[in-house]
Design brief:
With 159 residues, the protein is an all-alpha fold. The chain has one domain (2-157). The protein is built from six helices and no strands. Helix 4 packs antiparallel against helix 5.
Length: 159
């Protein structure tokens, strides 16, 4: 009975982890990894310690990169701290507007932030594009990580 409860919890963690890759409030890869670890403690799966350690390292690296890449993208395209802060505010507002808002919110926020700093639309759009590119790269890394974890989860569960 406990194994089935843990299995349900693991499946929920995997699903919420994938959703968390798109919703910045939830830490996607760590939740997916937690689902894998929970499954490991059931009779349904047994992962090697080496796999769990490697995936833990990947999850930590991707989680750190998720905070660095959008800032790097904004700065690489000439943005300032105003653009970075604007992208963050845009992301938070975008959460309430659904998937499209999550994607376009950081871009608009970075543009508005840069316009507050410097009244130059071309400069602001360039910084906003960098923010958007950085955000999408972070989402891509998180999704790839969570999908790899989900692959091992399903592979072990159905064997």
């Amino acid at each position: 009975m406990v194994d089935y409860i843990l299995l349900i919890l693991a499946v929920i963690l995997i699903i919420v982890g994938i959703i968390g890759c798109l919703a910045p409030i939830l830490p996607g890869p760590p939740l997916s990894y937690s689902g894998l670890v929970v499954l490991h403690f059931t009779k349904f799966a047994e992962f090697s310690d080496k796999l769990l350690i490697v995936l833990a390292i990947v999850v930590i690296v991707v989680t750190i990169f998720d905070y660095i890449v959008p800032v790097w993208g904004t700065k690489k395209f000439g943005g300032t701290k105003y653009g970075t802060r604007g992208a963050t505010v845009g992301l938070i507002i975008g959460l309430f507007l659904g998937p499209f808002g999550i994607i376009i919110g950081p871009f608009i926020g970075a543009v508005v932030g840069e316009l507050i700093f410097k009244d130059d639309m071309k400069y602001a759009i360039k910084a906003g594009f960098g923010s958007l590119l950085g955000f999408l790269t972070g989402v891509g890394l998180k999704l790839a990580t969570s999908f790899v974890i989900t692959f091992y989860f399903v592979k072990e569960w159905i064997r």
